[in-house]
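Sequence in, structure out. Go.
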Amino acid sequence: IRPGPDRAGQQPAVVAALIQAYRHDQPVGDPAAAAPPARQADGFIWTQARRIIVGGQPIIVHQYRRADGARILLARAQAEFPRVAGARNLPGGEWLADVDGIGVYCTARPGPTLVLGNDSEAVAALAHASQ
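Output:
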């Protein structure tokens, strides 16, 4: 059995870039003095914020870590994030997708927000805590 294609490469450029940043766990962009959307949620604690530009869109990426080393990225932008292939609709216009084992949760409250991580329950908890 051969593994299927990497779906992350088939996603909109901004989402694919954020997935790559999550996978490589390397801070990208310049440090940002942005306040965290939430200090902590579901055992994850905010550690840093970085400013990046993807496709001309400025994005603030917040990193969260848990004591066991698990991590989550929360990205905030001024424009809505594009919907990924295979996303499931959730109440309130939110959506959730699994892209190669990475949970991607999108909400527009309080502003365009994309949350990525391996623990889909923690991803949803952080998305709701940041509203």
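Check: Helices lie at 13-24, 120-129. The chain has a mean pLDDT of 88.
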